[in-house]
Sequence to fold (439 residues):
Amino acid sequence: MILINYFKKSTEIYKGMEVIDQNLGGTTPLDIVIKFKKPKEEKAEQTEPSFLDDFLSEFTTDENDPKYWFSQDKLDTINKIHDYLNSLPEIGTVQSLSTLLKIGERLNDGKPLDGLMLALLYEKLPAEYKNMIISPYVNIENNEARISTRIIDSNPNLRRDELIKKINHDINAMINPQTTEVRLSNLMIMYNNMLQSLFDSQISTLGFVLSLLFVMFLILFRSVKVALIAIIANVVPISVLFGIMGWLNIPLDIMTITIAAISIGIGVDDTIHYIHRFKEEFKHDHSYENAMIRAHKSIGYAMYYTSVVIMIGFSILVLSNLIPTIYFGLLTVVVMFSLLASALVLLPRLMIILKPYERLKGNVEKIAAELGSDLLFECDVASDESISNMYQELSKTWKLVRIPVHFLQMKIELLQECLLFLVVLKYWFLQVWQHLKAR
Fold:
């Protein structure tokens, strides 16, 4: 199904569909099916047939005979619903049995056609013309009548879901539910149901994906605090996206509804990269601010250039003639910018405020205290560069949590002795290993 508001007004498709919409009664079909219930028959007591019953049976009519289907109450119901639908500005052409009745009234010098005249007309009309003008709107076997309409898609005030609910509510208020049922069908209902199912699945899918991501972050980072920070950094850009769409009255459709899923996939990648780099940089000096600066100077550049390239790629879609494709490209650029800002601004700020790596500091101080003060000896004060070099040697030798620089400066004598002891121990182990390997 092609919707007229999916195309630019300058395109030939829009111009042609607008002519059909305005001059030929609409584009999207919507049918109203009226089901007439058969009255429940009460079981009469079985008696022997009499002469009077045989006499009256000759004058009774068969209710299943097609020509007796056109009763006045059915015609009144069809006319009432037909006139109501014809009064709605969102609906163009309305065709039903009521249309034939109005044509017959003009041909009959303004006299309305009643049920008896319709029964006679149906009886005398050839089968070919019955199938052409009556069968599309009446199904006598199933006791149903159909009203065919078309929706004016170019109407700027058209809200499909609200229109369907309004028609259902108003028609059910007109009819007697004990004798009549009404249901809506055709492409209009199919398309609306498809969109509504997409909206419902989008909400449930986003909730499931965010829960799954939280579990994945817990397994990956082994910290509830870090997992919460990562989830917040991914939820905020999605919220910004939906907020912008609501503010600009951009509808959710088959194209725009997929942007949230794409943004989560891209945002998770940037979040994992940044948090991993931040943790590695934090191990150098246990300073959140310095770790942020170093992370921005390393992985931040890669994230920035990758996002810019993706934004440039998706911006090409604005040249399309299909409006949902244009929305898809523009909103993807917006969400990519939001994800980049969240990863480079919000994420490090949350790391600095919540301080999720305080446990590493405690582990380092405990390890440093357990090294003991027995190894202290007199030595000259080393420079920051020499301390850093010795620290690098320590980190390569023992795969332990790295000792911060400011702690080395405070305990310079102890740390120098420890580093020298570890270097000598490493050299001794290498010599022993070479000796054993040679044997």
Q: What stands out?
A: Confidence is low (pLDDT under 50) at residues 370-388, 393-412.
